[in-house]
Amino acid sequence: MKFDRHQRRKIFSHGMTVLSGLAIVVILIPLIAILYEVIVQGLPAFSVGFFTKQFPVPCGSSNPSACPQGGIAPAIQGTFILIGMSSLIALPIGIGAAMFAVEYGGQSVWARAISTMADVLSGLPSILAGVFAYSLFLQYNRTLTFSTFSEAIALAVLMVPVVTRATEEALRTVPQSVREAALALGIPRWKSALRITLITALPGVVTGALLSIARAAGESAPILLTSLFSLHGFTGFNYSVTPMPLWIYYAATSPYHNWQVLAWGTALFLVLIILSISVVSRIVLNRLTRRAAGG
Amino acid sequence: MDGSSIKMRVQDLSAYYGKSRAIEHIQLDIPERKVVAVMGPSGCGKSTLVRCLNRIHETAPKARVEGTVLLDGEDLYALDATLVRRRVGMVFQKPNPFATMSIYNNVSAAPRFGGHYSRDEMDRIVVRSLKQAALWDEVRERVDAPATSLSGGQQQRLCIARALAAQPEVLLMDEPCSALDPLATAKIEQLISELKQEYTVVIVTHNMQQAARVSDYSAFLYLGKLIEFGPTEEVFERPKDHLTEAYITGRFG
Amino acid sequence: MPMGSGANPFPSSSPSRPRRPARWGNRIFAFLTGAGAVILVGIVLALFVFLYLGAKQSIDTFGFRFFTISIWNPFPYNVYGIVPFLAGTLITSSVALFVAVPLSLGAAIFLTQQAPRWMRGPVAQLIELLAAIPSIIYGFWALIVLVPIMRYDIEPKLYTYLGWTGLFSGTPIGLDVLTASLVLAVMVIPTITAISRDAMAAVPISQKEAALSLGATNWEVTRRSVIPYARTGIFAGIVLGLGRALGETMAVTLVIGNSNHVPKSLFSQGQTIASGIANQFLEASSPLELSALIEAGLVLLVIALAINVGARVILGRLQTGRGVGQE
Ligand SMILES: Nc1ncnc2c1ncn2[C@@H]1O[C@H](COP(=O)(O)OP(=O)(O)OP(=O)(O)O)[C@@H](O)[C@H]1O
Ligand SMILES: [Mg+2]
Question: What backbone phi and psi angles, to 5 degrees, belong to C271?
């Protein structure tokens, strides 16, 4: 009787182990399915022209070989321009806010307010960043509601919390004794903050910056609201550009075969970019932890 | 030994954490219904030794055991681990009540895991165990309060009650008094001498007087090796090894 | 600069008086970093202010009825209520959590309690990879691959066997609330898994040993010791997952079918707040519709931020620790 009961408990326990292992399998199925599809459909799109040519003319022909292939040069250009601009806006704000919180705020209300705001902002649905940028220019300058400015501001709003939180975390791992040592040597506070604390925390800061860039590179919703179907690449800051994710949206919802092929290629290229950013940031962070462990 | 039967027999036992060996080639007989004290300087492997006796050791990452341990003549490592732990209870160095459970549910945890008891039986087990652990008087009014509302010393006695409620045959206690005040310590020592009517007790202690007071047999470990083992009076009065003597007389540092 | 004053061999003789350049440096530094801090806080306030300004026309027109009007009708009425969007958002998010929570908790349990150690890191990173895939790619994949599977294989079966529940009635065309919910589920799994995994990994070994020493089986240790101890973190993970599901846009937009009506079943086409904005923003028929869309955005902002703050508060309370075994 007692043995039976014990046996049942063991079997139940094993059963739960199997079930939880099964959960992993179920979760990994979509991951594999998506990566498989992106690779299989995307790889054939890769060619020199893919990276250098303009978007092709939409082609309704049912015979794919009769259609121009074209490339996604305008989308690549759009992504780089937007990331450059939004980084210029977001990185100084994020790093500045974090340094202020850690170096001046300590444990004060201000420091906590900044962390809280960064936390709050990190939960912002990305499309609302687009609504925000749009409404902002609607109040101030209607001609810029659809422009690279508007697009970059929308992305920057999404990047700021990522950078702030990562920088703050990195700065807080620098031991207080390091700051005190610098101050005790008579090094002014701002110099010690920039040249000692920030440098010590640099890998963490760089990681945060890279993560925020990876996030911005994949965003499409906010850009959808702040750009107008522009297919000719960058023509001035007052006009919008189409970055890769948005181009995928346009192409995916279009009936044109030659556009859809390019969309898969773009998806693969985008995934590769985002993965390499996250691999690089992991390496940078590993160096940080190893250095911290080493002394 | 003095005629009583052997409850646990440790043969050529070595235990590892990864590549490092914490105890080596331990040979030890634990007589039934006696109290065995395990002494030795910090880090010598006392905890590791007792953790091998209920197969908790192997749950640590990369931990490994060589040699055999017999419980009533059966190989511990051939039996089912959860059943072994049921028969060989343990009280840990730091009190570890289930943080999310009430006092009552802590004590009744073991019976609830593997048995079906009526509410009445359960109540009886809980009250008896709490009384045995000298905690009942302090908590009788609030057995449904969270276990974490107790003081450190009370938490430790709660853990003892919890182990007793499983009705084990052997009770391992790893420095059970290190978190207790002298009064509570005295209660636990009293309890140990009562427990040996029914149970076999292995107690790890840093405190030599305590070992002398409560134990029938004493083991002295040093750097993972068993230096000396025998009836407590002999170990204390006529230590065979000069290391033991040095430790007992406090010349050890 | 401060090193230049090496002429004084006893710098400690005037320790508290800062040198001029340093004072200016400190001021400039404080000003610049302070500006970053002010802008960060300003962004959060500006979000509310500008969304409110954009929504003003709609707020003035509909007032509180915005929350009770159950149509979104540009023509002929030019009347807009958030009910259809809100319904779509709540239904997709709940179904997504219904699917994602058990899977995520199972994964977290497996990764912290059962998997062999060598497996834990790599598998956890694979699951995190799911979070790195841009949402537009989820949507594109779902549109091309998942929708046909739902339409021809899965939904007809659900209709046959579970149609009587009322949840799966209507014509299964694949572009519907159910498909959107499943995509959302996949997208929130990494969030819930990561946070509950952290919470379970943070359970002290002593808590598990307590259960083990009483003869608990593997599952009993998890059930009685690990999950109760980690429950706050698990809950926070679920709440954050909900926050992510509510605001997710592109993947949902591509597969939900885009119909501004309250869904009648999981096979109905629908609209979430986010997908409604994405779909209609550029094609708004009138300034009033645009304003109503921005008001819907304002509602989403309040919900999403409240949920996020809630989860952070829970997680913050977690970090203050518990009183086990005070030393
Ligand atoms: N989980 C672990 N991983 C690796 N090494 C460990 C682990 N636990 C203990 N050790 C090592 O094993 C050796 C024996 O440790 P053990 O805890 O058994 O000593 P102890 O005699 O109980 O000491 P104390 O009196 O301080 O409790 C020590 O060198 C210790 O560093
Ligand atoms: Mg010990």
Answer: -155, 135
Distance (Å, whole) CA C112 – CA C202: 10
pLDDT for A90-105, tens place per residue? 999 999 999 999 887 7
Q: Measuring from atom 30 of ligand 1, which residue has the nearest CA?
A: B43
Closest CA to A171 of A191, A135, A149, A198: A198
Q: Is the CB of B45 under 6 A from ligand 1?
A: yes
Phi-psi region of B175 (alpha: psi -120 to 50; beta: other; left: phi over 0): left
- Tell me if B42 CB under 6 Å of ligand 1: yes
Q: Is A89 on the interface with C (CB under 8 A)?
A: no
**pTM metric for this prediction:** 0.86
For A37-85, the pLDDT digits (tens) are 999 999 999 998 899 999 888 887 777 677 888 899 999 999 999 999 9
Residues 6+ apart with CB under 8 A from B102: B143, B144, B145, B146, B147
Chain C contact present for A16, CB below 8 A: yes
The arithmetic mean of pLDDT across residues B116-122, rounded, is 86
CA distance B73 to chain A (A): 20
The DSSP annotation for C80-121 comes to E-SHHHHHHHHHHHHHHHHHHHHHHHHHHHIIIIIS-HHHHH
Tokens found for residue C137: 């790619």
Q: Render pLDDT for A124-162 as a digit per residue (tens, 0 to 9).
A: 999 999 999 999 998 888 888 899 999 999 999 999 999
CA distance C84 to C254: 18
Å from A262 to nearest chain B CA? 49
Q: Would you say the CB of residue B126 lies under 6 angstroms from ligand 1?
A: no
Ligand with the closest atom to the CA of B52? 1
Of B96, B100, B114, the CB nearest to C228: B100
pLDDT of residue A88: 97
Low-confidence ranges of chain C (pLDDT < 70): 1-22, 317-327
Q: How far apart are the first and last CA of chain A?
A: 59
Does the domain at A73-294 match CATH 1.10.10.10? Answer given as no
DSSP labels, B93-134: SS----TTSBHHHHHTHHHHHH----HHHHHHHHHHHHHHTT
Would you say C94 and C270 are in contact if contact means Cβ atoms under 8 Å apart? Answer: no
Name the strand (E) or helix (H) holding B27: strand B20-31
Q: What φ, ψ does residue C286 adopt, rounded to 5°?
A: -155, 160
Residues of chain A above pLDDT 70, percent? 95
Q: What is the mean pLDDT of chain A?
A: 89
Give dist(CA A127, CA C248) in Å, integer.
8
- Work out which ligand 1 atom sits closest to the CA atom of B46: 21
Question: Could you identify the residue written with the tokens 């005790």?
Answer: A184
Question: Are B114 and A10 within 8 A, CB to CB?
Answer: no
Domains and CATH numbers, chain B: 6-248 (3.40.50.300)
Whether residue A131 and residue C220 make contact (CB cut-off 8 A), yes or no, is no
Q: What's the gap in Å between the CA of C210 and the closest CA on chain B?
A: 6
The CA angle B28-B34-B36, to the nearest 5 degrees, is 45
A223 close contact with C: CB closer than 8 A: no
Burial class of residue B68 (count of CB atoms within 10 Å of its CB; 0-12, 13-18, 19+): middle
* Local confidence band at A247 (pLDDT 50, 70, 90 cut-offs): very high
What is C262-317 written as a DSSP string? --SSTTS----HHHHHHHHSTT-SSHHHHHHHHHHHHHHHHHHHHHHHHHHHHHHH
CA-based nearest residue in chain C for residue B52: C213
Which C residues 195-214 touch A at CB under 8 Å?
Answer: none
| Residues of chain B contacting C228 with CB distance shorter than 8 Å | 98-101
- Adjacent-strand bridge partners of B68: B11
CATH top-level class of C82-275: mainly alpha
**What part of A 115-144 touches C (C-beta under 8 Å)?**
116-128, 130-132, 134-136, 138-139
